[in-house]
Specification:
α1 (19-36) packs across α2 (62-72). This protein has 6 helices and 4 strands. With 239 residues, the protein is α/β, with parallel strands linked by helices.
Length: 239
């Protein structure tokens, strides 16, 4: 799904987007999907049973932080969680501010649309150009993030609302050359998520790929194998 002001999703009256808005929108969509497929929500009475018809959630980059917040909010309509290329940083504290990061109607640029491709030669110029055109067509204006301090509720922050008993199965996946989501930060996230109350928790590092490993010719199939294996069978694998 596209957050408010992203892609084909219109902005709300504030022309801003915040982590808490994104979390509530994600939970609304998960509930809608679950009800559409007749899935039973996770409840305290059904603690040892997870309806496999419940939707799973994949968050990429900053979206992975949102997905993590959804999980720790005790969302009862979530089956499994994939945190892909999470920009999690246990040493970073976001300043408290409601001022948007960008002025109204700030234009996106070709260079900003391609900033996830960081390994030279990893994508053909024609492919990069087509990607940029598509990205700028749906997102010609930069979205205006605000209230990023709401990310400070993630562990190991003392403000964290994360419950160590959360048993939602989780997969962490990143590229070995990802400048925004290094293997080291993902190891720290793996540790900070605790033992998931005994629930499944896996970490996969895809060699030779960057922040867009799901799009690169050399890593796309390995990314799909890791994610599909986790979502369908709960299996992790070495790539």
């Amino acid at each position: 799904m596209d957050f408010r002001g992203f892609g084909l999703t219109p902005s709300d009256s504030s022309d801003t987007v915040s982590p808490s808005k994104c979390v509530e929108d994600c939970k609304t969509v998960l509930k809608w999907i679950a009800e559409r497929h007749g899935a039973n929500p996770n409840t305290a009475e059904a603690a040892n049973y997870r309806d496999q018809r419940l939707p799973s959630l994949i968050g990429w980059s900053q979206g992975a932080l949102i997905a993590q917040m959804v999980s720790q909010s005790n969302c009862e309509y979530l089956n499994k969680l994939v945190l892909f290329g999470s920009i999690y940083n246990r040493t970073l504290t976001y300043p408290t501010s409601s001022t948007p990061l960008h002025p109204l109607n700030t234009l996106n640029t070709k260079s900003s649309s391609l900033e996830d491709f960081t390994i030279e030669g990893s994508v053909l110029p024609s492919t990069a150009s087509a990607f940029s055109v598509a990205a700028l067509t749906v997102d010609p204006i930069k979205s205006r993030w605000t209230n990023l301090h709401e990310f400070n509720t993630l562990p190991p922050s003392p403000l964290s609302t994360y419950r160590i008993t959360d048993t939602t199965p989780v997969l962490l996946i990143t590229g070995s050359h990802d400048p925004y989501s290094s293997p080291q930060t993902q190891i720290e996230l793996f540790q900070d998520l605790g033992d998931r109350g005994g629930g499944d928790k896996s970490l996969v590092v895809i060699a030779g790929s960057d922040h867009a490993s799901h799009l690169l010719e050399g890593s796309r199939e390995r990314w799909k194998k890791a994610v599909n294996g986790f979502l369908e069978f709960g299996e992790s694998c070495s790539l």
